[in-house]
Every structure is written in structure tokens, then in C-alpha cells.
Amino acid sequence: MKDKIAKWTLLVIAFSAVLALLLITFFIFQQGVPLMFKAGLKNFFSTQWSPTHGKFGISSMIVGSLMVTFGALLIGVPLGLSCAIFLTEFSSKTVQKNLKPVIELLAGIPSVVYGFIGIIVLVPFIREHIGGPGFSVLASSIILGIMILPTIVSISYDSLLVVPGTYRAGSLALGATKWQTVTMVLIPAARSGIITSIILGMGRAIGETMAVIMIAGNALKIPHSILDPVRTITSTIALELSYSVGDHRMALFACGTILFIIIIILNIIATKLTRRT
Amino acid sequence: MTRLLLLPIVFLLTLFVDGCSPKKKSSITIAGSTSVQPFIEKLADQFMAKYPGIKIDVQGGGSTAGIQATFNNTCNIGTSSRNLKQNEQELKTFLMCYDGIVIILHKTNPINDLTEEQIRAIFDGTITNWKEVGGKDSKIIPVTREEGSGTRGSFEDLIMEKKVISDACLVQDSNGSVREIIATTPQGIGYISAGLVDERVKAININGISANTENFLSHKYKFMRPFLLLTKDAPTSNVKKFIDYTLSTEAQDILKKYGLISIGIKE
What we know:
The complex is a heterodimer.
Chain A (H helix, E strand, L loop, with lengths): L1 H38 L1 H4 L4 E2 L4 E2 L2 H32 L2 H13 L5 H19 L7 H25 L3 H9 L4 H12 L1 H17 L2 H7 L16 H8 L5 H30 L2
Chain B lengths: L1 H18 L7 E6 L4 H14 L4 E7 L1 H9 L5 E4 L11 E15 L6 E2 L1 H8 L17 E5 L4 H11 L9 E3 L2 H10 L3 E6 L7 E3 L1 E2 L6 H5 L6 E8 L5 H10 L2 H9 L3 E2 L5
Parallel strand pairs in B: 1-2, 1-3, 5-10, 6-7, 6-8
Antiparallel strand pairs in B: 3-11, 4-8, 4-9, 4-11, 4-12
């Protein structure tokens, strides 16, 4: 009897998570999709965003989100992956024991703190030494790149760690150097874990809002260089939600819908890629 | 096992309990413009000290939301930092004070004076270098507010006229963060509420008229917007008490102290 109660209670709890997800999905689409058709898809995918004047083009934000995310990966993936390789293959146990918690601690820093560091340190540095207003694709990419490091490091680390020791031994026995072992045996063997880490990092980067609002500059124009300001989908929603009414609010939900679709597409690509091993 | 199950049940129950805590009697809810909010909060504090029986709850949300809330009766008093549109005229309005919109630059910028046309051209993207308006040879970085903001709306009405703010402008979501960017960016230009100008930025003259209290009071400085209090029906009891208080000499002096332009009391 008790077992039955426990089983059913846990089932309800398990389904409540799925139910919440379904409700959110339903709600976002229900609020967002009507506007896309009301405004017309041509209007919706133009580059003119001025929702209080009936212009709902979100292309520049889609481009902005993708640019910033791609930039973050460009910085975060090589750094994170090298760090994971160093920790598993080239460092002593003591270094591992001390360094890994420190990197994981990065994940615990609130994003507003990252944004603040960006405004105080990075933005003036870029403005004075590289050019442009400082609030830029570059600044956002660097900050987001650092923010996704813990995700990439810890998941890649775990997946490199579970590669069977016999693989390493075999490769070394065949006369491969340590570096050859890493690039030709370990990384391919840990591939699915590494890709998962990149996807999760990408998810964090594309969904990050606070830090990006603070350092991206949020200009609506599509950036022509990495020193230009940029507006992402998430920052538009956060910037404008508090004042929006009517169609404007619906347009922000439509932005959410598009973000949702982009993330689903990325996830599908990721699962496809990992399965092909 | 049963004890384990108790935990989530208790947790769920607390959610319900929170929803039905009793409301205090005689409270006033004020909602609307985020520009008006900090000043109303100060007046509300003074008011509550005077009348301990009345509780005032001040919320933000923006002018448009405040107007909507007044229509729907979800607040007792709405606030707006812009004039009412044609279809909003039915509400009872009380002019509390005026607020100047001032143009701010970085401290080191040599420019002290711009004409209305120059400001318009800077924000619509026609002028992009400080050299063109008599400054150093460097790119202009204009900072604007987000779509839907009352301050942006007033700036568009008062200065931009029919021109559209360029999409190359940086966008920030509060007076404070616009000021922060201008304070740290030598090439920046932005507009904020006069009450929020501080020593880290420089407020410039428009058409040769400086943004000071004297020019505000004489209405020589044109770029001012009203701070309105709104009610759906003619105010009664506590609501009336509060509105009367905001128009009293005491309250108007407080507003003046924070850089707003009092409406001038008829005693």
C-alpha cells in the first residue's frame, strides 16, 4: 500500500515537470504566434523593429543572438576543452583536485556580476585600445565565453575521464606520443560528451540575458564588425517587457517563440551529431 | 516513507497559505510611470508618517500600464509621465509637477550648447561625428531608451518631432543606466530626466537655453513633460487626501528639492 502511494506520488511529481514544460510551450506559442500572422511574416522577419509603430522585424536580433553565441563558443570551446584535456591527461592529482572546484565555482557567480565586470573592465578596455564604443559583440562574446567555461570544462572532463584506461595504454604501446593519444584516441572516444558540453554551453550563451544587456549596447542595427554594438533576442524581451502592452507585448512573446525554435533546432542538430558515432 | 512524503505536501500547502493572507484596510495602490515612481515613493513615505492609518503601495510598470490599471480599477491612482492620448481622455487627471528632459554629455566633452536640429540629427543618425557640431574629431555614441519607455516617448514628442531615432543608438532600460554610460563614455550623448542629473555628467544648453530651475519655472526651457496623477472617477476619502497632499506646499517643496518643477501653488 505504502509502495503504491509512493509510486503514484512520485509519478505525479515527475509528470509535473513535464506538464510545466508543456504549459510554458503552449503559453509562449499561444501568445506569440498570432502576432506573427497578424503582422505578416514579411514584416516579422524584416530588420525594422519598432513595435510601438507597427514594425515587428526581428531579423537583426536573430543575427545578434547567433553572432554573440558563436563568438562565445569560439572563445569558450578551445579554452574549455584544453583545460579539460590538461586536467585529465597532463596534470597531477593535486592540481586536478584544486583546479576543478575553482573552475566549477565560476558557474556560481551570478550573471549580473559578469556584466558588471564587463562594464567596469572590458568595455573601457576595448573602447580605448581596440576601438568602437566598447559595448560590442566582442565584449559580449568574451564574457559569455568565460561564462560557459565551467559547463564545457566539467562535462568534457567527465567524459574524458571515463574513456577506458586500456585505450590510453594501447595507444601508447603502439608508439603514439601523449599528444597523438589525446587527439587521435581520447577526443574521438569522448566525442559525444564533448559535443554535449558544447551544446549545453551554447544553450547557456544564447539564453543569457542580464550580462548581455549590460555590455552588448543593445543597438538594433545589424553589426558590421565585432566592435559594433548588438541586440540579442533575450535582451529585447528583458528590456522592453516591463513597458509593453498590446501588440508590443505579443511581439515579445513572438521573440520568445523564435528563441524557443532556435534552441530546439540546435538541440536536434546536437543529438543527431552525437548519435552518428 | 510517509514522513518523506509529508515534505512536498507541506511545501505545496504553504503556497496556498501565502495566497490568502488578509489585506490591510484603507490602503491605496499607486501604479504607473517608473519616472514618477521614485518621487511618489518619497511623498508616500511622508504621507504615511502623517496619516499612520493609511498604507500606500507604490508600483512601477510604465505610464501606459498605469493608465490601463486605472481604467481596470487595479490601482487607485495611476501615474503617467506623458500626456494622455485621445482615447485615454476619460480619466481624471491631476498635474503634479513637470520634469525637464535634459541632454547629457561626458564631463570632458568641450561642447556646452546644441540646437534642437543638431540633437535631432545626432539621434536620427545624420550627424555621426562630434566634429560636425564643433567638437573633437571622434565618433558620436548616442544612447537612447528602449521602445515603450515614457522618457523615450517624451523625447520623441519634444525633440525628435517626426524623425525616427536611429537603430545605431545604444539602448538602455533606465535613466540610471543611460547616465552611467554617458559618465564613462567620452563620446556619448544621452537624454534623461532633469531630476536625475548628477555631477558625473554634464547637462547642456538647448538652443542656448540652459537647463536650470529658473528656466524650468518660467517655461523658457521647452523640453518638459508633465507628471500626472490619474483616477477613474472623482477622487474620494483617502485617495483625495493623498492627491491633495501631493499638491500641497509641503509636497511640492519636496519635489522641488529633487529637481522637479513644481506647478506653483495657489494658496
